[in-house]
Write a structure and sequence with these properties.
The protein is mainly α and 81 residues long. Helix content is 59%, strand content 0%.
């Protein structure tokens, strides 16, 4: 069987594609296996923290009466009256 340069190129490309597909399959399998071993307590904790964040109002770190440095602008500096 005589193989030309184009045949070898096609074979190399086929090997590259099959190797890439194999890597993707292996990654998918590892992700699926890791997801099945996941700890349920962690999921419950994440849910609880999310519910607490939704129920608590967002508090600003600066207070209204806080002294500003002379180089700082006020909170509403961008509003033009």
């Amino acid at each position: 069987m005589a193989s030309t340069e184009s045949d070898l190129f096609a074979l190399a490309m086929l090997c590259s594609v099959l190797l890439s597909f194999g890597v993707l399959l292996m990654l998918g399998f590892c992700m699926f296996r890791a997801a099945s071993r996941r700890d349920g307590d962690v999921d419950n904790l994440i849910k609880e923290v999310g519910e607490e964040e939704k129920s608590e109002p967002v508090k600003r770190s600066t207070t209204a009466g806080a002294k500003q440095e002379e180089w700082e602008k006020g909170e509403d500096w961008w509003k033009q009256d």
